[in-house]
Design brief:
319 residues; alpha/beta; Rossmann fold; seven-stranded parallel beta sheet; 9 helices; 17% strand; globular; binds nicotinamide-adenine-dinucleotide; binds uridine-5'-diphosphate
Length: 319
């Protein structure tokens, strides 16, 4: 297949490029580098099956020759207002990537009679009132909250994808991705795993926001990519949660990272800048992924962190 991957220079996009190339496909990566890093694709420079187009997906997308599939991953993804890459600091770009970008990417799929896969998110569940979150849960999102630029853009993107499936018969898939971490996350990303690992490697206290009792479920990137690949190959048109159901508090995560890095500096509690907007609990129900895709995560948090820490060690040296 000839496959267009938007957001290719980002964390997940670059791993997806690797996976599809390894499976013998031709990949066209597209990115405008707003939160991505050209280094994430540097190892593919000499690959005959890989090409790259620098382009903002909010504008009409032109791809020379026919494509067989489009995977739409372009979007800022970090909620941290302290990071220049945080989507609350890129609000209009985030809404455009989710709305206009999805429209344009679906347009490419329709024009080429190609398969389409949307990167959606657990954020569409907002501040969930149901726990764990099943795909049938409609979510609880404040339309004007600071996270809404991301959440509502992704909700719109899901609706648009279903409209293209139902009305135009485009062969679509929707993956709802829960917190994922691993090598190639940007140093300035601002999400919790990159922040904590870098602080630990600098022997600084880890900055826990609020009381640190809020939970997340962390999926290692290789597990996630496997789940997405299986969804891509399946016939499933309705959203599927992909994530790790093992739930941890932020204090537990911080303590585990300090233990693995031998950081004696402990934790420091910082005011919760996202008051009222930081989901207190988040955990995927992956029953559908288990049943339809025969998928479940295999990499434990400890193992995943041990594979991620050396990446940050190297990246910090070259920063
Ligand atoms: P990332 O910031 O590393 O990658 C996103 C990429 O999209 C970047 O390379 C960025 O430059 C590119 N991009 C953004 N807007 C663009 C535009 N208008 N035109 C072209 N390129 C553009 O983030 P990530 O974690 O790799 O996230 C990738 C996708 O997965 C996003 O759609 C995100 O919403 C989704 N997602 C990620 C997670 C996670 O835990 N990593 C969770 C849920 C959903
Ligand atoms: N967080 C933290 N310290 C940090 C960064 C994040 O305690 O340096 C917390 C944040 O408040 C949230 C959780 O970690 O409760 C996960 O945040 P992240 O930005 O990784 O993504 P989210 O799951 O909120 O989309």
């Amino acid at each position: 297949m000839r496959i267009l991957i938007t957001g290719a220079a980002g964390f997940l996009g670059s791993h997806l490029c690797d996976r599809f190339l390894r499976e013998g496909h031709e990949v066209i990566g597209m990115d405008n580098f707003i939160t991505g890093n050209p280094q994430n694709l540097a190892h593919l420079a000499a690959d005959q099956n890989f090409s790259f187009i620098r382009h903002d997906v909010s504008n009409f997308i032109f791809v020379p020759k026919k494509v067989d599939a489009v995977l739409h991953f372009a979007s800022p993804a970090s909620p941290n207002p302290l990071s220049p890459y945080g989507y609350t600091n890129l609000p209009i770009q985030t809404m455009k990537a989710g709305a206009l970008g999805t429209l344009n990417a679906l347009g490419v799929a329709k024009a080429n009679n190609a398969r389409f896969l949307l990167a959606s998110t657990s954020e569409i569940y907002g501040m969930p009132l149901e726990h764990p979150q099943k795909e049938s849960y409609f979510g609880n999102v404040d339309t004007i909250g600071i996270r809404s630029v991301y959440d509502e853009a992704k909700r719109f993107a899901e609706s648009l994808t279903m409209a293209y499936y139902r009305f135009h018969g485009v062969d679509t898939r929707i993956v709802r991705i829960f917190n994922t971490y691993g090598p190639r996350m940007h140093l300035d990303d601002g999400r919790v795993v990159p922040n904590f690992i870098q602080q630990a490697l600098r022997k600084e206290p880890l900055t826990v926001y609020g009381d640190g009792q809020q939970t997340r479920s962390f999926c290692y990137v290789d597990d996630l990519i496997e789940g997405i690949y299986r969804l891509f190959l399946s016939d499933e048109h309705y959203p599927v949660n992909i994530g790790n159901p093992v739930e941890n508090t932020m204090v537990e995560l911080a303590e585990e990272i300090n233990r693995l890095t031998g950081n004696p500096a402990g934790l420091i509690y910082k005011p919760d800048l996202r008051v009222g907007d930081d989901p207190q609990r988040r955990q995927p129900d992956i029953t559908r992924a288990r049943e339809i895709l025969h998928w479940e995560p295999k990499v434990s948090l400890e193992e995943g962190l041990m594979r991620t820490i050396p990446y940050f060690e190297q990246a910090m040296k070259h920063d």
